[in-house]
Amino acid sequence: MNNWTAPQRPALYAEQALVTEILNGAYPPGSKLPAERELAAQLGVTRPTLREALRRLESDGWLCVQQGKPTQVNDFWREGGLNLLSSLVRNSQELPPNFIPDLLEVRLAMAPAYTRAAVAHSPSQVAAFLEQSTRLDDLPLSFASFDWRLHKTLALYSHNPIYSLILNGFTGFYEQMGCLYFRYPPAQACSRAFYAALLETARAEDPQKAETITRTVMQESIVLWQQASQAGGAG
To answer: Are residues 221 and 151 part of one domain?
Structure first.
């Protein structure tokens, strides 16, 4: 019984199957889904189960459901919200090739701000967390896990809960991509230097310097991801 896992709920299965079909182009933005009866048969679920899945996908911004009309696939990049982001990262095998660079650009825009705020509000807590980095081994998973927890910690101590909500949309996915990134030795070296430098700014209670260091390293991480991908470390 130790290996037992709960079966997937039919509505969740239908939801994920439709997201996969949307992302792989079977139902592109602007297209219409088949009629309920046909679509339910294709997915092997009941019509009430399908309706539950469609309602969830509509609330996340994937679909436009109108009574008496075919269900239409939205331009989800324009219409979607944070819940849609979670759906995207759960279907990472279908993501467009520029998704990771775009995500790193978003991190570049956010991380310096929440790092500055965290060091301004809670420098001792930030320093205490960063002291753990001195015991970090060279395993990609160790780096990925620590880096994820660092950004979550910085977002928490920024005292702006919206940062945490955004990061929560990447739970699991961040570490999955981080393991690929940190297979590349220069990525580990860059992050070790970052953790040490950020620790010093937290101890010095210098939020402006923390922001500057973070912005520089987030820019470097975009270049390193591209290099790691070309080297086979992240691809």
So the answer is: yes
Report the distance separating Cα 78 and Cα 94, nearest Å.
18
Give the predicted TM-score (pTM) of the model.
Answer: 0.77
Q: Which residue has the tokens 């970052």?
A: 194
Q: Give me the amino acid identity at 232.
A: G
Q: What is the DSSP letter of 166?
A: H
In a domain, 4, yes or no: no
Give the pLDDT of residue 104.
Answer: 93
Kindly report, residue by residue over 9-62, the tens digit of the pLDDT.
898 899 989 998 998 889 999 999 999 999 999 999 999 999 999 998 998 889
Please report the pLDDT score of residue 173 as a whole number. Answer: 87
Going through 159-214 in order, the beta strands assigned E by DSSP cover: none
24-50 burial: b if 16+ Cβ within 10 Å, else e: eeebeeeeebeeeeebbeebebeeebb
Q: How many helices, marked H, and strands, marked E, lie in the chain?
A: 12, 2
By CB atoms closer than 10 A (0-12, 13-18, 19+), residue 232 is: exposed
**228 is written with which tokens?**
């790691």
**Alpha carbon distance 67, 49 (integer Å):** 17
- C-alpha 132: how far from its chain's center? 24
Say whether both 69 and 110 belong to one domain. Answer: no
Strand partners, 72: 32, 64
Structural domain that includes position 137:
96-231
Question: Which residues in the chain land under pLDDT 50?
Answer: 1-7, 235
